């Protein structure tokens, strides 16, 4: 399958700081990437859809000014958690959609964020 | 009705057993269907796509029933390494994946 990388794999930060997470499709160009969040023992929750060259589409209840998404190229999307708080601690996972066929999606390995 | 529904389990089965999961979806216009596998504290990984004609990959068989709007996953000869959460995933159109909450499988020695 296709390969999606994510960096960093884990991060610990202090409350009030910002954290940037990168998501890259390594062997294909992804016009659309997705950002998910998963709390322990919960299902994946879609946060936003990231479109190359245009603004991201946020799901209801997700603050766009807090979770900044930039899809600068066909292989890179970034999520910045601004002014992080302990309740933002979670597992953040990106995915990229193969742009043809039946639209398979491949996931990055995730970023575990802990805000102290 | 939720978009995608799965029995959360857990399903506890002995090694070598055959186990089947079902998943129902509400949007009859859904075009693509997948099973993903997620291990604890890891990202979901694509297990197999589900085609209208059904498909098989080794010990795994996936079926789609459009009339009843469900998909199934059959695992034969279960291995300890099959223990994971299995996510049913549906694409209603050219939109993001819709995930079920997952079915947890534990294969016991």
The secondary-structure element order of chain B is: EEEEEEEEEEE
Low-confidence stretches of chain A: none
Rg from alpha-carbon coordinates of chain B: 13 Å
Low-pLDDT parts of chain B are none
- Determine Rg of chain A (CA atoms, Å): 13 Å
Helix content of chain B: under 10%
Kindly report the greatest chain-chain contact and the residue count on each side.
A-B, 19 and 19 residues
Shape of chain A: globular
**Range of strand content of chain B:** over 45%
Element-level helix/strand string of chain A: EEEEEEEEEEE
Oligomer: heterodimer
Estimate percent helicity of chain A. under 10%
Total E-strand runs of chain B:
11
The pLDDT mean of chain A sits at 90
Written overview of the protein:
The complex is a heterodimer of chains A (116) and B (109). In chain A, the strands form 2 sheets. In chain A, strands 2, 4, 5, 6, 9, 10 and 11 form a 7-stranded mixed sheet that branches. Helix content of chain A is 0%, strand content 52%. Chain A has no helices and 11 strands. Chain A has 116 residues and is an all-beta fold. In chain A, a hairpin with a 2-residue loop joins strand 7 (67-73) and strand 8 (76-81). Chain B has 109 residues and is mainly beta. In chain B, strands 2, 4, 5, 9, 10 and 11 form a 6-stranded mixed sheet that branches. In chain B, a hairpin with a 2-residue loop joins strand 6 and strand 7 (60-65). The termini of chain B are far apart.
């Amino acid at each position: 399958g296709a390969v999606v990388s994510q960096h960093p794999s884990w991060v610990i930060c202090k409350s009030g700081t910002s954290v940037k997470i990168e998501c890259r499709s390594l062997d294909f160009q992804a016009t659309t990437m997705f950002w998910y969040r998963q709390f322990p023992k919960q299902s994946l929750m879609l946060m936003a859809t990231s479109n190359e060259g245009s603004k991201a589409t946020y799901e209801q209840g997700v603050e766009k000014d807090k979770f900044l998404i930039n899809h600068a190229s066909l292989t890179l999307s970034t999520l910045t958690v601004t002014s992080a708080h302990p309740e933002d601690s979670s597992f953040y996972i990106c995915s990229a959609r193969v742009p043809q066929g039946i639209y398979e999606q491949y996931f990055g390995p995730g970023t575990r964020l802990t805000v102290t | 009705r939720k978009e995608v529904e799965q029995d959360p389990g857990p399903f506890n089965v002995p090694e070598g057993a055959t186990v089947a999961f079902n998943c129902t979806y509400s949007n009859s216009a859904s075009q693509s269907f997948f099973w993903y596998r997620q291990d604890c504290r890891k990202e979901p990984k694509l297990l197999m796509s589900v085609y209208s004609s059904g498909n098989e990959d080794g010990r795994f068989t996936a079926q789609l029933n459009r009339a009843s709007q469900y998909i199934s996953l059959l695992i034969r000869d279960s291995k300890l390494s099959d223990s994971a959460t299995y996510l049913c995933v549906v694409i209603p159109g050219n939109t993001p994946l819709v995930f079920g909450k997952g079915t947890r499988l534990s294969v016991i020695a």
